[in-house]
Amino acid sequence: MKKLLSTLFILFISFSMNSQTIFGKWNTVNDETGEVDSVIEVYKKNGKAYAKILQINDPEKQKAICEKCDAPNKDKPILGLEILTGLEKNDKEWSGGEILDPRNGKVYKCYIKLVKPDKLKIRGYLGLSLFGKTKYWQRAK
């Protein structure tokens, strides 16, 4: 019985800690339709945060390429594309990196912050963060 309780406790702690991190899979939502557009995976590489597109829900866009991107992403498939790069932990947010918008090919400075265990705030901007756009991603189940 003690072994079972210990195992359950460890699983509970693991789950709780996992939901308190920016890392994992996140749903992006289309502003116009309110439906999930894609699934993004945020992961850690060399102590920094990165993210790539894991899934595109619109079958017509699944083979799309980043035509408007500059090198090195020019004409790469959007599915699998790394869109967040080089974010470093800074207190309660991750900043100092960039985000790529594959729709227009533009790269912005950005920061991300976990605002709830299942809600991630992403702010992309040019120059000062005052001049930018904020999106929220929901943790994928």
UniProtKB/TrEMBL annotation:
Signal peptide location: 1-19
Pfam family, one: DUF2147
Residue ranges occupied by any DUF2147 domain in the UniProt entry: 24-139
Superkingdom field: Bacteria
UniProt keyword list: Signal
InterPro entries: DUF2147
Protein name from the UniProt record: DUF2147 domain-containing protein
